[in-house]
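FAQ: What does a multi-protein file look like?

Like this. Sequence, then tokens, then the next protein.
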Amino acid sequence: MIERICNKCIQTSEAEVWNNNLCPRCGYDNPLNNGNVLPDVSSIEEKPSNWTYFFAFTLFSFISSILTIVAILIGTVMFSDDLIGIWIGSFVELFTLLLVSYIVYIKVFKTLNMRTVWTWIFGLGFFRVVGWSNDLAMMREMGLDTAGLFPTWVVVWFGFLYVFKYIIQNYTDRAWPVTNLTPNPVTQSETTQQKVDKWNR
């Protein structure tokens, strides 16, 4: 019995059940492989560790926070008003988050799974939201009017999450993975297959 192994899911199947080069288990379109010779599994690239995701998120958070603080300071100096500076920084933060996320996750950490990246940002972003209560309390102690700041920060943060996901899905080569990773290899469209291929980048 001749078997072939899929380069993606690393599962073996009888060669006769393969539809051309489509894996019958996951639908991945394997490149031609010298007939039915099994590839060297040891050469397959390992997935990034959780520490890599954590370091990338830490770098993303640190740089974006620094840029936002700079925007607040510039606004405060220009208008000689702390509250105006904070409002300017609040709106500028959306652009700093998008810029830094693009640099960190698209240009630097190119092998990360983008759905996992988004999950990390969404999950650890909860601590960011919790920290806002301390920021608001400190501002009130300074005698600043904080009305409207919290909902603005919420809109900016979730707006960033939505736009970041949209950009990844539509304007980069790091296509968002499809939900169903075990499609029918016979009816699977080329576009869907391309998204599946990029899932493990």
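And here is the next protein:
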Amino acid sequence: MRLSAKLAIGLTCALLSTAAVTAHAQIDSGTRPAASTEADRAKRVQLAQQLIEVDGTIDQVNQVRAGMMPVLEQAMRQEDSFRQLPAADQTKLLELLDDEFQNNLVPQILALIPDYYADSMTTEQLQATVTAFQTPALKAYVSAHAHMSDALQGRAGDAAQACARRAVQRFIAWKQAKST
């Protein structure tokens, strides 16, 4: 189905973008690990997996997925082909889509992130970062960061609505000025 492919690509891009931003923000991009043995790389991948377990990445990717589902549903409901389906079929399709994202897409994305870290950081950097994220201060940061998007979502929505109202008012004024 054309719609599902477009939506899946969009969600994939959003999730990968979020993961990449998270990874980029945590990595000194000027430092790359030297050529290493497979055992060295395996150790870095293992440390990187530990890192995403303590740095909030897993929760963040899951939050993006959960946040995308209402947007995705709204976009699908705008498509004639979706609206022509019986309500029970629409519900089932959305359930299956969420299940696919949760059980297939998210794990695939989360599998990519440790490889990225392993290729971008040295063993020492990864170990130091994992250790840092296990401190009380960074645990508190991760907890606060995990809840930040929920806490700010309403405020950001209100601000977006206010911006939209102002844009419409400015557009109306522009149209009136243009017609006089």
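Q: Is there any per-entry metadata?
A: Some entries carry free-text notes. For the entry above: The chain has seven helices and no strands.
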